[in-house]
Amino acid sequence: QVQLVESGGGLVQPGGSLRLSCEASGWTLNYYAIGWFRQAPGKEREGVSCISSRDRSTIIVDSVKGRLSVSRDNDKNMVYLHMNNLKPEDTAVYYCATDLKLHGTCTDEFLRSVATDFASWGQGTQVTVSS
Length: 131
Hints:
Layout: E1 4-7, E2 10-12, E3 18-24, E4 34-39, E5 46-51, E6 58-60, E7 68-73, E8 78-83, E9 92-97, H1 108-117, E10 125-129
Parallel strand pairs: 2-10
Antiparallel strand pairs: 1-3, 3-8, 4-5, 4-9, 5-6, 7-8, 9-10
């Protein structure tokens, strides 16, 4: 069973920073594209960023561009979401997920399809931006 564990969320003031972590439990995520998704209360889950497996190309959606970035450390079997200049509208539960396609590539379609099709969502990590 695919299991991803998110951590690093918390309460932060507007303009603050956080680094979220995504790790795989019992398997390696190094060979897969990994996406970050978020769900705010009353809203649908949306993709915000992803990183490819091989060339580490990334996509950052327009609403967070310039403030969020994504990286991966294959030695540690981890993917990170770096969040800067956080805004109240970034408040949400953040999740990581994958399509489990070997040597997968991060694309807009990846973000759309995984947001709706991924079946093993973890607990996520809560990010609250408030003064």
